[in-house]
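Record type: monomer structure entry
Structure origin: computed from sequence
Chain ID: A
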Amino acid sequence: MTRLRICPEIGEGSRMNDWTHLQDIEGTDGDNLEGRLIGLAITGSIAAVESHRLARTFMRQGAKVQIFLTPAAAELVSPTALAWSTGRPVVTDLTARCEHLEFFGERGTAHCLLIAPATANTVSKIACGLDDNIVTTCVTTALGGGIPVLCAPGMHAPMMKNPAVVSNLARLREYGIELLEPTHSEGKEKMMGVVEIVARVSRSLGEGSLQGKSVLITGGPTREFIDPARCLTNPSSGLTACLLAEEAYRRGADVTLIYGPGRVCPPEWISVRKVESTAEMLEAARRTLKSDPPDFVVAAAAVCDYRPAEYSEQKISTGSGELTLRLETTEKIIDALREEAPAARLVAFKAGSTETDEEMLKLVKPYLLEGRADMVVGNSVTAEGLGFESDHNRYLVCAERGTPQVVGPGPKSRLVKPLWDQFINL
């Protein structure tokens, strides 16, 4: 049984009110976890050194974080430092306050319990129903109270392969605990990366509006080469497509991103098919549509509309002065997507040099009237501080029926949620 001790009141009392200035980073990177309290249980693996970054990443997504430490973990990471990181006193022992019930009981305030890292020892205790420290007591209570529990193992590879540990992990799955798979590297089963853990927790706690749905997204620019050293392209960063993919994942979708050479790296936990040219993007889209017909297709790529009619196998010398290029149009990916996936809800992004919403509406209306897309998201590439190579944008969302809706201006990271709300309500 967990040791009891009497201690001064912690948590939401007057003492906590003096710590709120330490929580000023909440929501600075987004609001995906706004209003959520994450219980973070840390056990005695060296991966515990990631706990500060993990807690702060949760907070930057709008969450509050309450940390629980086993005695072994407290030897690796300082409870005082973790309290500074979260703006909440760390719980290291069960006290007369009954913290396991306060956070994970029938009227508990926590929305989930994440064990990260989880050692072989803790995994085995949970599998056998042992309850001998604050972390295992919280797990026992959360499982009994229907609170989501997620577990991110981290240990040396031989330990992970131990038949008992393999069996215990399987038992955790049977209990309904979501396992966050480690990465094999340097002879170790290393705890899942911080950003991916936060994404998995967000998905677990999300509203699930895309649960069971398949989503195909095209994103980034494409390149059309003139010779081995030069190409036609555009300044698209690929940020919007990556953010749309992350948001669809958080909402429960099975996401595939077909991605050109953008400067933004797609999330590692999203299925990504990298391409370069417009033709490669089209071919990858067609293969995906045939193997896994999606429920949603979001054409957010900034496709290069022209390519050189001839390609030079050798770098063209600049010594001859002027260079004349004859260009031809590339494939219309949006039309091919509509033809290949007639049952999918198709959203097309359209960039234009417009100054008013009326001008943009004239630009996007043909796509709707001709049935090339179910919804068109227009944005101006000449608006100051918005669009290409900017983290901010403003969108005009148009469907065949209904009044066009303005989304933004604002950070692209905060606009993908209202965009997906619009897509789902098509």
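Annotation 1: The longest helix spans residues 278-291.
Annotation 2: The first strand starts at residue 4 and ends at 5.
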